[in-house]
Every structure is written in structure tokens, then in C-alpha cells.
Amino acid sequence: MDHFSLKRSNAPDRGNSNLSSKVYVRSTKSGKVQKIVRELYLRQDIPCSSNLCRACLDIAPKDYTNKTASFVLSDTPAGSKNFPNGQYLVPDTNAFLTGMDLFEVETAFHDVIVLQTVLEEVKNRSLPLYHRLVALTKNEGKRFYVFFNEFRQETYISRGTGETINDRNDRAVRQAVQWYNTHIKEAIKARSKKQMRIPSVVMITDDRDNLRKAKAESIPAIKLSDFVSGLENADELLDMISAAQDQREVRSKQTEVFYPEHYSISKMMTGVKAGTMHQGIFNVSPYNYLEGSVHVPTFDKSLLVLGRENGNRAVSGDVVVVEVLPTDQWKAPSTKIIEEETLNKNDNAEIEDGETITSERERKALQEEVKRAHGQSSEGKPQPTARVVGIVKRNWRQYVGHIDQGSVRSTSKSSRQQQMVFLVPMDKRVPKIRIRTRQAGELLGQRVLATIDSWERNSRYPMGHFVRSLGELESKGAETEALLLEWDVQYKPFPKTVLDCLPAEGHDWKVPASTDDPGWKGRRDLRDLLVCSIDPPGCVDIDDALHARQLPNGNFEVGVHIADVSHFVKPNNAMDKEASQRGTTVYLVDKRIDMLPMLLGTDLCSLKPYVERYAFSVLWEVTPDADIVSAHFTKSVIRSREAFSYEQAQIRIDDDSHQDELTNGMRTLLMLSKKLKQKRYDAGALNLASPEVKVQTESETSDPVDVQTKKLLDTNSLVEEFMLLANISVAAKNYEAFPQTALLRRHAAPPKTNFEELSNQLKVKKGLELRSDSSKAVADSLDQCTDANEPFFNTLVRIMATRCMMSAEYFCAGTQAYPEFRHYGLASEIYTHFTSPIRRYADLEAHRQLAAAIDYEPLDASLQSKSKLEGVCKNINVRHRNAQMAGRASIEYYVGQALKGKDINEDGFVMKIFSNGFVVFVPRFGIESLIRLRDLAAPEPEAEFDAENYVLKIKGDVQRNIELFEKVTVRITDEVEESTGKRKVKLTLV
Amino acid sequence: MTTAGKIVNNEIHLQSIHHQQTQPHQLHPPEHSDGEPETKKQEMPLDTSTYSLALLRLDGRRWNELRRIHAQINTQAAADGSSYLEMGNTKVLCTVTGPAEGRQAGQRGAKDNEAKVEVEIGFAGFSGLERRKRKSDKRTLEMQHTLSTAYSSLLLTHLYPHSTITLTLHILSQDGSMLAACINASTLALIDAGIPMSDYLVACTAASSATTSDSDNSDPLLDLNNLEEQELPFLTVGTLGRSDKVSVLICESRVRMERMESMLAVGIDGCKRMREILDGVVKEYGKRFS
Ligand SMILES: [Zn+2]
Fold first, then answer.
1. Bridge partners of B91?
2. Is residue B92 part of a domain?
3. Does pLDDT of B198 surpass 50?
4. Distance (Å, rounded) from C-alpha A151 to C-alpha A203?
5. Residues from chain B contacting residue A466 (CB–CB below 8 Å)
6. What is the tally of structural domains in chain B?
7. Residue A45 CA, ligand 1 centroid: distance in Å
8. Of A381, A548, A556, B17, which is the most exposed, with the fewest CB atoms less than 10 Å away?
9. Of all residues in chain B, what percent are helix, strand and coil, respectively (each to 5)?
10. Which of A802, A767, A773 is nearest to A785 (CA)?
11. What's the pLDDT tens digit per position in A185-202?
12. Which helix (H) or strand (E) element contains residue A183?
């Protein structure tokens, strides 16, 4: 390199004072540490964004379209006890980490400056909190302004030698607060000569050292809790500060340790790499809160994690690393029902002293388990058992529950004394949460929302804090909101930005009369076709309509017409974003939480009868044997002739006096659908039963009056067959057009081991064989699983078989090999969802892809990116499952309400047997309930559990054997639980 | 309602895992994304999505600002032509050899009656960031090809039949806009070598800023650093002389058509400013030796 010296580039002339650099360290997967040097351009044109300041207006940045963002911070900010002239708040990182719930309160905490330093730290500490913080900055009413202090020359500081990153960042925050105070003062001086009140710019921090330094530098600063104390509703607000900070202060006093220390991250990484440790998601059994399992990639079967100590502070859903225990500590999975609520009723939320991690009762329960497992070890039943050694990622969310009455010291409603209480989560897999509150008396008997903040080694239970009350236990409002929260259903009304995306004409929107209108471009006029819709009674969001007519060549033309939602919902606008977040419409017994605003769902998109509607049509030519000759896809305009309910359609088809074209069309559809169905079954499609229960409500009060299991008519399956056919046809078309990005739905074949237990149960109890080598084998052998004396037995087996299946999932074509596309349950090699775009986001995406595949319109970029689509799939998979669970929970609640005060005997079937109880399924109500031995008699009768033969031999006065699959009569009553004041459906044996 | 977790001291990724609530009877093995393994994150900066918060990019620039440009000409006396160029932390050294008579046997691709332009790009071991082995080779080959094609048509090659002009580029540090930096450095070195060309070729990158969940607005961004290139769709544009004539246009990412126009506009504008800067460097050098 001859005479050229690299020194040149480091010469002082380039060391502009407005250029700095920042070094980030990151380690790669291979364990190497990398230094990344990044340039920082320091500038003086970053505005303060206060409406008090005029100087900054001149320097406010303009975007490409020459627009300037309006200033955020109010010129008359609210004041408080300590800052009567008003304040702009500058919280530090920990203030957001511990108090995010507070900052989100609509009635307090306005005019907040979020420093870049803080935003960056929050992001590094917790992504969910970071996203919530960013959402706050976009909420106009809250007036949160992100000030990029690290880029402004006056507020940028470099790290001193020997200064820790934390100290440097604290100093950066103080520097920014100081600058702001000076700047605001000058701004006001420049504005008027008159005396004006000058708001303070206040740092919020709980760090003592930081507070002390601020004081020394005369920078306004205050503790979060002190600031809140100066506000109205201080008590409520104070409860929302994370408990973690209180704990930090008392930590030094406590020495008792309940749990082993978690391994360091690097130790876990090494272990996982070496294969001596395993990573997976921690799942807790809904029947036994002390039994967890972790499915890890290395093994087919899940590893068991038994007991609280081995669980080592993992909460169901967390991503953990486990270590397999020595073989002599392996155990069989529990055959016993263990519920936290009953076992640890007497634990004290306040005091932890002297108690060990497992309470006496828990220990006893565990010992029995061990004994039992040892007794059976000769059969090789014990399973690999592991313990949690560390937590990779917490998956904590907000939990709905109620306050454990026993844990409340002072139940007086007026007491404002702070006390520690237990919150018992609705989700039985989640441990009790210790909560510090001043409102214990008021919260009793309420549905309460809380979060977990931390779980330290010295605390038997996790610590959390109260978020808000949903209302009285058992009240419809509170219970409905509770289940929506538990299943993370977005139920708030659509924001204005979403409603702004709706057509301006509102309900007056019509299909343009002139076919020259751009709306008609590329659409086929199918208004002459005799189309009708068939749906459940009272359906207002009609996604689909059908028609069939004979062709001159003797074949049939069959059309499925789907609401053209993608015409109204354009990719990436606010409405689309909201729908993509919601993922699906959620149906509760008395409530529907829409994915799209009502105007679209129930009117403009809905294929209502007698009016013209845009549709996306699939047209097939079908032979009389229901073989598909061709499929054709087109955007269209249709006019439905009638909206039938399943029952109305059935009656009309069955009534020979109707010989009109429309009815004959439906008869054709019915005839073809039966053939299609037979073909599917021949190919190995499964007919899996799930108990569908219908709750009849009186429309006025929506109080339940009766519960019935749903009846299925031929017309149900008519619609279903053609929807399946449309979905399959569209899947193939989209895949052909977009082999990488087609959004499809797959259903994986269940691993053989999934059927082991059921197959053994059928063999032992009924001498029946369940073959599982293919879906066809499963389907055929399920058909053989009958009991001549008990027609319901077959359904019961189907219900149980359903639970051995994997769940179907959406995926992006490029992420799987073609054989993996297969839909096991439907026995189709490819499948997608196309037919319900009003209520499922996946269908809307499929519409967009299909529209591009037939060259109707270009494909949006978001539908071309595999990674974006994977994100969409991931979200809608979760939403789909949550919606189902929420729907089920809603039915459960209403069934419970319908049974209130009743005392009925009903038939039930034994589905599962434990050593201290069994599960009974009651077909009439679709309920599944535990009957524990102690429910049968007091004191709890002794029993002998014959696990090999699935028999529970109950001794004493009861003197009775309970066998798997047995039909029993149960008495259904409801009782008030003493500890919670909650009503519960109770089943006993008759 | 979000159900966010809290206090995540030990939130790390050992493997990338899709979180799902598993039902007891529906155990899914954790899925691995087939993309790149997620790296463990410590002390990482914000990402490009924060641009919309205050119209500031990750390094403090506005949408239409170039990074600091530093350039020198005739850095190696022994070479026929040489230059050194920094665009932010992207640092490139360029030497020109030739036009040299003769060619190696078996070389194809260039007509005999004009000079062949050969380009070699090498990376210093410390040039930074993960060097992906196979991929970098392919990308380097593509860059070499782009440069060679662009200069073959630009240099008056017919003046040097049967000869070869070799451009050797040495990347000392990478921080985005690699191809643009190579073009700019080559132009300077070729001027230094005194090889006649019809016009200056200068280049810049431009991207389209990330959109947010509540707005679809996006600004075109000029002169990308490495982090921006990784997260945003971008293009490299090279223009000739004082004209807006585009001579090089490379876009390897998917860009929405409607964004392309503003990206090109800001890129071409950047080229103009780049040309002024390089012009200054050449004139300054000229002054010293006149
Ligand atoms: Zn200002």
C-alpha cells in the first residue's frame, strides 16, 4: 500500500463535533462477539414539540411530502401537588417497566416525554412493553412525545471512562431533563414579557442514586409512587405500580430461599448445544397443577416435570430449559386430580416464613405419586422426568381471577390499609399470584385483572399487581369480559381510523347501476343466476351463497359465491390492520365480536337476499357423478333470491310441491353434495364429532332458558361439502400462482403415540381395535367402534379420538414441502380457507391472492413477502384457537347459568379415570365434569385404582366400581363455593 | 387489550421458537424457522420502524441526508490511478492498472478492438460484519460484473485495443451502500489514471422507510447504512455527469411500484450532490499540482 497511510482518515478534520459513534456489542449464534460501530449524526434541529415553544417551529422536520408533524405537548399541561405550574413528565426506563399499566390510564399521565435513551432500554428489556410504549406515543389523546435526545447535540453525552452503561444512561436522562427545563423557560420568555406560569419538566425515577444526583443538580425529579400519591384516585393508581419495585427494597431482609437458582444463559446455551439440556414450552396439566410437561425437539414424547420445585418458577407457557433427572427419579404421569385451590387453601399471602417450598399436603400428594410410580415400574411405565433449570422467555400475560377470601386480612371495604392477598387465576394451570393492594375489601367477590411481575427464589408464589376490576363475579358483564381477556380477544369498539376506511355512502352503498362503472371492471354479471344462501337461523353475516343448474351436455354448473370482502378492505389500511390483528370474528352465546365493522359484515359484504352484491365466484362444471370437469374463478355481481335457514331449506327440498327452479337447484346441490361426501370418506376423510351445544336465550334478557345439542340436517352438510370443494379448488389455484407465498391450511397426521392410550382403552374395555396407520384406517376403525346397546358410544369415541389429533394450522406454502400440505382430517392434499372472508382473515388473504392469480388486480407487497405472511399465519393460528376456546367458555358459562338452582338427573359417560376421581361427559349439555372421590361421600371414601383395566374400585358405603366408557346417571346441582362465593355446577353419582 | 408479559430480565433466544399455547392433547414440537438463526440480542439499537416517530433515522440523519463523505485521489503513487473513499463507515480503496497491452489466453467476452475492463473486489479480514461465505462470493461476482459493464460502456475503450484496464477494489470496512461506494471510488481512480471517459459515473443508494401499523406513509431515504439495508427495500442508482441519465440501477429487494418513483428521485438527487463532492476532490487535487 505504498505511501498511503490510513491515519489520514482519522485526522481531526473529519472529527466534526457533530459526529459521534456508538459501539454496540452483539454475539452471533456461533458465540463470537462482534463489535458494531455505528455513526451518530448530532444535530440541533430536533424540536422540543411543546406548544409553548415557537423557536422549534422553524426547525421542525419536514417529510418527503413537505409535511410537518404537529407539536405534541400541551401548552397548558396538568399540574399536581408538587408541581402546581404544570408538568411534562420524563420517566426513566424502570418507571415504564414497573408502571406501564399506570401510563396507559386514560385519565392521568398526559404530556410525557419519552427519551430515546429510555425507549432503547425498554426495548432491550422487554419487547411487549416496548410495543405498548410505542402504541402510547401514537395515541393522540395521551400526548406522548419521543425526543431523540441521543441525536441532539446539547443532550448527547458520551460515556465517561469507568462509567457503567446504566450510569451513563441515567446521566443522559438528567441531561435531557435539564435541557428541556432551560429550553421551556427560554421559550416562554421569548413568547411574552408577561409573567406566565412555567411548567416543570420532571424526571420520574425510583433509583435513589439518580434522585440524589438530580437534586444536587437542581433537576426536578420525583419517585413514581410519590408522584402518583399527589394525584386523584391515588389508591387505585398506586396498586398498578408493579410489585417488583417494592420487592427490591425488602429483598435484603429476606434470606429464605424456596427455589434453586436458574442457570446462567451461557450455561444453558452450552447445555442445549451439547444435548444435555433441552428447550421447550412449559405446559401444566389442567387436571394437576403440579404436573408439567415440556415437549422438546429431541424426543417424541414430552418430558414430565413434577412438583413445584422441579418446575422452578416456570409458569405455563414459558419457554424453559430442562435437564433430565437420573432414571431412578423418573415417574409416571399422574393419575390423580390435584387442584391448587383445594390443596393450599390455607397458605398465607403475607407470611412466607418457615414454610418450605412444598406444603405438607403437597408433599404427601407427591409421595403417593412416587409410590405408585415405583409400584408400576416393572411395566416400564415411568417416563423421562426432568427439572427446569432456567427460563429462556417468560410468556406472562394478564390474568383474570378472583381474590382468595382466605388471604384477605381486613375485609372492610373502607380499609385503605395495604395488604398482601392472593389472586386465584381462572386458568387452573397458573399459580396463585401475590398481590399488594389497598382495596382488598372492595375487590372481594369481583372478577379481577392482574399481571405477574416477578417470581423470586425467596417467594413461593409469583408477585404481581392489580390492574382493574371487571365487575362482580358471576355477573354476565364481568364473566364475558373475563373470558375475552383470558383468550386475548380484542373487543373494544373499532377506532375512528378504522371506521374512516368504510365507504362514505354507508348503508346506502349500492352496486353501481351502470356496468361502465369502474366497480364493474373485470366482473361477470351473474345476476340472472338463481342463487340462494343457507345458514344457521338468524345469520346476518352471510359469507356464501350457491347455485346449480343443468348444462345442455347433461353436466351441471355449480357456483359458490363468496362475499367480496377484499373489494372493501384494501391491504395495509387501518381497517385491514385491525382485521389482521383480530384474525377472526368471535362468537359467544349472546355476543359476536366482529373482525370487520358491522356495516361491511352485516350489510355491504353480506350476500343478503333480493339485493345486488359484489361476490367472488367459483364456478365448476360437474358431472352427474360429482366429478369435477373444470373450475373457473371470477369476480362477479350476484343477486341472491332467498336466504334460507338450514331447516327452511330442508323443508323446502323435502316438500315435493315445490318444483320451482330454485328448489330444484338446491335438490341438485344436495344430490351432488352426498356424492362428494362419499368420495371424501372413501379417500379417508374423518368424521369427527364434537359436542355442539346450543344455548337458547330469551332475546330480551338473553338469559338462558334451555340447552340443547345441535341437530344436523342434510342441508348442513350440503353447504359444508361445497365450501370444502371451493376451498380446495382455490388452494390449488393459489398454490399454482404463488408456490412460495400461497396462504394454505394444513392438518398434520397425528404421531402414532397420540392414539396409544385410546387404542389400548378400547382394546381392554371393549375388545375393539383402533388402527391409526392412515386417516382411512382411523376412519374405518372408528366406524367399527360401536356398542349395539349404546348408540352414543360411537360419538364418545369420536370425541376422544378428536383429542388425539393435531390441530390444523395456516401456513405459507414456501415454508413446507408439498407432502406436508396435506389436510389429514379432510384427506385432501391441499387446502385453504376462502369461504368466510367476513369473519376470517385467512380467507380475506386468500381472496387477494386469488384475485391476483386470475389477473383481476396486482398483488399487494405484503402478500408477496414470505416472512410477513408467516407472521400473519402465526397470529391467525393463535386467534383462531383462542376464538374457539372463548366460544366454548361462553357456552360453559351459559350452561352453568341455565342449570342454576336446578336439580336434575342425567345420563353421562365416563371418559377418564384418575386414582381419586373420574371425568364424566354429559351429552345433553355437552359438559364434561370432574367427580372427585370426596364429592361422593364424606369423609372421602377409600378406593383402589386398577390402571391396567381402567377401573376405580370405590370402597366404604359407596361400594361401587367405576369403569371407563361406563354409562352412569349423574345428579347435577349447583353449589356455592365457600372460599370464593362462586357458583359451580356440581356432579354427583346417583 | 394486550396480554403482555412483564419483567423480562432473562429474555433471550436460544433458538427461535414460535410461541403457542399448546393444548394438552395437541402437542406441537417447537418449530424452527428455516431462515437465519436469530442472534442473541444484547444492547441493540432501535430499528428502522422508529423513523416515523420523529422523522429521524437510526444514525440521526433526516431522509434526504448523505452520510459524511471523505475522498482522496492519487493515494498510491505506484499505481496508474488510485483513490480512497469513505461513505460513513463504508471504506473503499481503489487502484487502476492499465491500460496494459495484451490479454491472457482464452479470455472471452470483449471485442478485440477495444480494451477490456476487469474488476476485482477484495475484502479486508477486518472489514466487519458476518462474511457469509458462499453468499458473499456470489454478491461480489455480481458487483464485479455490474462495475465492469458500466465502465466498459463509459470508458473510451476503443482507444486501447488489445489491452486490459484492471480496477482493484479493496473493501476496508462495510457499512452499507457498498456498490455505490465502489462506483464512486472507481470513478475517482479512473480520473486519476487519466483514462478518457465520456462522463463521470456517480452512485447512491435509496430506500423506502418502514411503514407503521397506523399509517402507510413512507419517506424515501438516501444513502443507506448497513442496518437500513438489512431492514428496508432499497436500490442503487448511478447517474452520468450533470445529466439525470441513469446508467446503473440495481434493485434486489421487492419494492412497491408506487414507492419506486420517490426512491429514484431522491437517489438521483443524491448522485448530484455526490458528484459535487467528488468534483471538489478532483479540483482540490488538481490545484495542488498545477
Ligand atoms: Zn422548543
1. B86, B173
2. yes
3. yes
4. 19
5. none
6. 1
7. 10
8. A381
9. 30, 25, 45
10. A767
11. 999 888 876 667 899 999
12. helix A165-191
**Domains, chain A, ordered by start:** 77-241 (3.40.50.1010), 265-350+370-393 (2.40.50.690), 396-476 (2.40.50.700), 496-742+827-884 (no CATH), 899-989 (2.40.50.140)
Average pLDDT over residues A921-933: 83
Are B43 and A25 a contacting pair at CB < 8 A? yes
Beta strands in B140-191 (DSSP E): 163-173
Sheet with A200-204, edge to edge strand ranges: A144-147, A112-115, A87-91, A200-204, A221-222
- Ligand 1 being an ion, which residues bring their Cβ within 5 A of it? A 48, 53, 56
Predicted confidence (pLDDT) per residue in A219-267, tens digit: 999 999 889 888 877 777 777 776 545 444 444 444 567 788 899 888 8
Rounded Cα gap, residues A641 and A664, in angstroms: 14
Helix axis angle for A661-682 and A714-737, nearest 10°, is: 70
Let me know if residue B55 belongs to a domain. Answer: no
Q: In what order do the strands lie in the sheet with A927-932?
A: A927-932, A917-922, A904-914, A967-976, A983-989
Cell of A771: 388402527
Asked if residue B272 belongs to a domain, the reply is yes
B18-72 residue pLDDT tens? 223 322 222 222 333 333 233 333 455 677 778 888 889 988 899 999 999 999 9
Instruction: Categorize the per-residue pLDDT at B133 as very low, low, confident or very high, splitting at 50, 70 and 90.
Output: very low
CATH number for the domain spanning B124: value is: 3.30.230.70
Query: B255: nearest CA in chain A?
Result: A861
DSSP secondary structure of A401-450: EEE-GGG-S---TT----EEEEEEESSTTSPPEEEEES-HHHHTTEEEEE
Q: What is the per-residue pLDDT for A721?
A: 93
Please list, in sequence order, all residues whose beta carbon lies within 8 angstroms of the beta carbon of residue B286, skipping any fewer than 6 positions away: none
pLDDT one-digit tens code per residue, A465-517: 888 889 888 888 888 898 898 888 988 899 888 999 999 999 999 999 999 99
Q: Are A634 and A697 in contact (CB under 8 A)?
A: no
The answer to whether position B122 is within a domain reads yes
Which pTM value belongs to this model?
A: 0.62
Which residues sit opposite A40 in a β-bridge? Answer: A20
CB-CB under 8 Å, A46 with B7: no
Distance CA A62, CA A69 (A): 8
Residues of A within 8 A of B172 (CB-CB) are 6
CA distance B69 to B284: 15
